[in-house]
Amino acid sequence: MTDDLRRAGRTAADLAAGHLASVPDGPVWRPVPGADRAWLTDQPLPAAGRPLEDLLADVRDHVLPHPMGNGHPRFFGWVNSPPSPAGVLVAPLAAAMNPSCAGGEHAGALLERTAVRWLAELVGFPHRPGAGLLTSGASMATVIALATARQREGRRQGWDVRETGLYERSPLAMYVSAEGHSCLRKAAELLGLGGRYLRTVPVDGSYRMDTAALRRLVAADVAGGVRPFFVAASAGTVNTGAVDPLGDVAEVAREHGLWFHVDGAYGALGVLGDPGFTGLELADSLALDPHKWLGVPVDCGCVLFGDPAGPRDTFSLVPPYLRDEGADELGWFSEYGPEQTRPFRALRVWATIAHLGREGVARLVRRTCALARTLAAMVEADEEFDLLAPAVTSVVAFRLRPAGLDPREVEELNRRLPAAVQHRGRAFLTGTNLSGTTALRACVLHPDTTEADLTILLEEIRTAARSPS
Ligand SMILES: Cc1ncc(COP(=O)(O)O)c(C=O)c1O
């Protein structure tokens, strides 16, 4: 078996390297043709097994030809980066070890301490040992942060939400800007807080949280007998990359005893930009996704806390069979979140940061932000395009507005453009809605994207607009 694995492993390494090398020359994305789609979705369960090398032939012929597109320098969709080479390199080694990083005395659990601390140090978040863990992504990081805030609020009011649930308690209100990510609402619903107590704070003309409106909403809740307990600001919104006025939000949180959460899933690394921003360090919890800007291969999120006691108080539940007399004072990672068996994500984080160094990460952030500013300038200089928000991180929100179209036609055009551009295969961008306006958005994350790629993106949008729908 080991000899087979060694042989096939060499082929797999060649396939991976060949795939990465060929991606820029192919279409960014293309629809999966019927036969391959059927192969991917309808395979019968095999009765007998097959040799490893055979499986690789299938991967080569049916899997690798159909990527999502995010390895390509002209992929500007959502927030999906190409994989870091160092992350690709070590992923099979983590699988070869296959530990559970719930905790214990082994490399997987121990290296997560370094990975989490490095992430905190990269973004300037004050780190106390144990105050953070890797997660599947920011959605899970948000669940962990919100549950911890809910537990703290219960304790303050003299009850234990883990024991009593939310039964017969007065409602708790949380505050999220109109541009806050949907994972915040999902987490609120999941944790029984009720979507109706999630207050949507309006944004200003730059899509940043309006803190005067936040104060008014908090005051209205206090007057109405609803207890304000949590505010989430964004460091890099998904729609425009906007960074909320973190210091001002922190101030409101401090005045009213709210838990201050920052969603930096996409944009926390933007602190390394030029200009960067400050205020992350004031948060009680920060969600950031190594599988976004940093390029750690999916999946990898992270939640950092100011105080490690909170998540442990919220999640620690150690049954007798898991007691570890040898554990240090921090205990196990599984005491800080809902997952018991946890994958060895730390190796991919460690390798990615070790390969780039702090300087390399900062260079990547500065380069992609500069490209986004260039794209914004190109959009502004072109009469056919409208820039819809300032480019403060690496997202550009804009739309096409050709002369002669009425507002309804402009809306329809921009609604159909993302799919039309995607199907042409030369660039990939996605759309969104900003204050009721259909928008195009381009997120620059790829280290090899160039200004020429930005020119092609705008050309593709114009060409797709001219082609029949
Ligand atoms: C700002 C922001 N927050 C949260 C998320 C959710 O992150 P994940 O998909 O890792 O759960 C995203 C995903 O794009 C995001 O951009």
Please specify the SSE layout and strand pairing:
Layout lengths: L1 H21 L11 H8 L10 H12 L21 H13 L9 H17 L8 E4 L2 H19 L4 H4 L7 E6 L4 H9 L7 E4 L9 H13 L3 E8 L11 H11 L2 E6 L20 E4 L12 E5 L3 H7 L30 H36 L3 E3 L7 E6 L6 H18 L5 E5 L2 E7 L7 H16 L3
Parallel strand pairs: 2-3, 2-4, 4-5, 5-6
Antiparallel strand pairs: 1-7, 6-7, 8-9, 9-11, 10-11
Note the main attributes of this structure.
single chain, 469 residues, alpha/beta, Aspartate Aminotransferase, domain 2, 4-stranded antiparallel β-sheet, 43% helix
Count of extended strands: 11
Structural class computed from helices and strand pairing: alpha/beta
Small molecules (ligands, ions, cofactors) in the structure: pyridoxal-5'-phosphate
Radius of gyration: 24 Å
Overall shape: it is globular
Mean pLDDT across the residues is 97
Portion of residues in helices? 40-55%
The ordered H/E elements are HHHHHEHHEHEHEHEEEHHEEHEEH
The termini sit apart by 54 Å
What is the name of the CATH superfamily of the domain at 93-353? Answer: Type I PLP-dependent aspartate aminotransferase-like (Major domain)
Q: Reading side by side through the largest sheet, how are the strands ordered? A: 1-7-6-5-4-2-3
CATH class of the domain at 93-353: Alpha Beta
Describe the structure.
The structure is a single chain. The chain is an alpha/beta fold. The chain has a domain at 93-353: Type I PLP-dependent aspartate aminotransferase-like (Major domain) (Aspartate Aminotransferase, domain 2, 3-Layer(aba) Sandwich). 43% of the residues lie in helices and 12% in strands. It has 14 helices and eleven strands. 45% of the residues are buried. The model has no long low-confidence stretch (mean pLDDT 97).
